[in-house]
Write the C-alpha cells for this entry.
Amino acid sequence: MDFNFVSEKKREFLQLNSFMRVLALSAIAVIAFGLTFLVFPFMDWKLHFFQAGIFAGAFLFGPFAGAAVGALSSSYSGLYVLNNPWIIGGNALLGFAAAYFFTRMHPMKAVLAAFAVMVPYLIITDVFLMHMPVAIFGGILATLFIEAIACGAAAWKIAEVAKPYLSKA
C-alpha cells in the first residue's frame, strides 16, 4: 500500500519527441540568451534574470536540457563580454543540478540545492582560476543567490503553466 499526500505530484520531465516540444525548448533557450543582455541596475548591484530560462528548461525537460540552456544562454557573455569561459560550465551545472533535485524535492528547494552545488565550482573557477578578489566574489555570490531565488520562483510557475499545454503536444 502506497501512502501519498493529496497535494503530492509525481514530477516527470517531458520528452523531446515532438516538434512543438523541441520548439518550446528552443524558445526557452533563445529567451534566456536574450535575457543575458538585459541588466537591471539596483543600487550597487547589476541584476540579470536569464537563470529563469535555465530553471524553466530544467523543470520542463530535464537535466540535459537545463544544462544545454545554461551553457547556451551564458556562452556569449562568458566568452566575449566577461572573458570568463568558466561561467558556461557554472550555468550548465546549475541547470543540470536543478533538474536533478526537482524530481526529489520542492522546486524552490531544488533551486537552492542547485545553487549550493554550484558554489564550490564558483569558488574554484572565479577565486582560484580567474583570481577574483574574495570581496568582489562575495558580492557576486550574494547577487547570484537573490537572482536564483527570483528566477527559480518565476520558472517554477512558468513550468506549471506550460507543462499541461506541452503534454498535449
